[in-house]
Design goal:
The protein is of the alpha/beta class. The protein contains 11 helices and 12 strands. Strand 8 and strand 9 form a beta hairpin.
Length: 311
């Protein structure tokens, strides 16, 4: 709460089960006494947050009833359960927590697939002149095939070849290894983002422009029409990313089709690390709706034009 004031709560003091810790601090918040002194503080603050994982359910209920604050926020500890975006349900006096996964519903998948086919078909027709111009520019800077097929993990972790316009040198892998060996201080950046701000593999001018404008992603329309990708969804994971990303997140993410654009791309793009990407991808899968896809698609265009976070 102290580190995230946008949550709307400002800690002013801590009450312990006894007053043994009075006078000390936790994360800069003073321990002002025991819970027996709650009456004094209830006249000065509105909300008390009960964060006592050692208390069982009955004890927690008794504690919340005994505290004289107008509002009591219970913070039970649910190990292993992501607590973001869950709904509470009253089951005849028993508190239930509902975790949604909207994109796992069959009817939602069918609706999403229909919109993907219609949208990708129209987008392919309009983007053909742009793709032709980009291919010519790539071959001028770096002779060779202007297209690049990158093996990634898709639906149910089945590998497939994702199409892209080539924005790197043909020996990109060797260039990356040499760069990290010569610049060990950049290795932490690579491990955190799996990208580099000044990437030695990228073609000068042309490669940078194609990546900043996301034009290099346009060939993935073919993957959408083939049923390997969706217009909107979590970005596909490279095979090497499977070794460094949380396995539970991988399982959830690979339970749906990967997308050309997604919530992480329009909100953070390359500025957000793996933690931000996991959070936003999980939100998208659990709370999917056709309107959410439309919102992300509409946000994609200004994000691409601004070039924010792209490199």
């Amino acid at each position: 709460m102290s580190n995230n004031p946008k949550l709307g709560y400002v800690p002013v003091g801590i009450l312990d089960l006894d007053s043994g810790l009075a006078g000390t601090e936790l994360n800069g918040v003073p321990v002002v006494g025991g819970v027996r002194g709650a009456g004094y503080w209830a006249k000065r603050v509105k909300t008390a947050a009960v964060a006592m994982p050692e208390l069982e359910g009955t004890q927690l209920a008794q504690m919340s009833a005994r505290l004289p604050f107008p509002q009591v926020l219970l913070l039970p500890e649910y190990q292993g359960i992501q607590t973001s975006w869950i709904s509470t349900r009253d089951l005849n006096g028993v508190l239930g927590l509902e975790v949604k996964k909207n994109l796992l519903l069959r009817r939602n998948r069918m609706l999403k697939r229909a919109t993907d086919i219609a949208g990708a078909g129209a987008l392919l027709i309009f983007s053909l002149p742009l793709l032709l111009f980009a291919c010519i520019a790539i071959m001028i800077v770096s002779p060779g095939n202007p297209f690049y097929r990158h093996e990634v993990a898709g639906y149910r972790m089945r590998p497939f070849r994702m199409f892209k316009l080539r924005t790197m040198y043909p020996d990109a892998k060797d260039r990356l290894q040499k760069y990290l060996d010569d610049n060990p201080e950049r290795r932490s950046e690579w491990l955190q983002y799996l990208k580099l701000r000044n990437d030695p593999r990228i073609l000068p001018v042309v490669g940078t422009f194609l990546r900043r404008s996301s034009i290099d992603e346009l060939p993935q329309i073919i993957n959408v029409l083939r049923g390997e990708m969706s217009l909107v969804g979590p970005r596909p994971l490279a095979l090497y990313e499977l070794e460094v990303v949380d396995p539970d997140y991988v399982n959830l993410r690979c339970s749906v089709l990967p997308g050309i654009t997604g919530m992480w791309q329009v909100e953070k793009r390359s500025e957000g690390g793996l933690e931000a990407r996991e959070e936003m991808d999980t939100y998208y899968i659990r709370n999917w709706s056709l309107w959410l896809d439309i919102y992300i698609l509409c946000r994609t265009f200004p994000t691409v034009l601004s070039g924010r976070g792209a490199y």
